[in-house]
Structure formats: structure tokens, C-alpha cells
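Example 3.2
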Amino acid sequence: MSALLRLLRDETGGPLVEYAMVLALLSMVAIVALGAIASSASGALTKTQTQLTSAAVNFPTMTTF
């Protein structure tokens, strides 16, 4: 029983828990930021695709030589 009480009172792993919490918070921030970047990149690529398709449709062609 005294070993269990000693284990519950032991605070040597405290900094490790704090580091784990900071790491978890930074991971969540990185995931949100990457989601925002991915959304922005997707919009830019869609716009580029639309412009390229429009340019290809309106590209002058030579029908006679």
C-alpha cells in the first residue's frame, strides 16, 4: 500500500506530461494550418485549371494550309 501512495505522490514525470501537452497542442495547430493551406491551394489549382481549359478552347487553330 505504501508503494502505491509513493507512486501517486511521485512528481518526477511532471515535465514529461507538460511536454506531451505542448506537443499535442502544436500538432493540432499544425493540422488546422495544413487544412487551411490545402483549401487555399485547391482553390488556386481549380482557378488555374479553369483558365487553361478556357485558353485551350479559345486557342486559334489552322484549318487550312
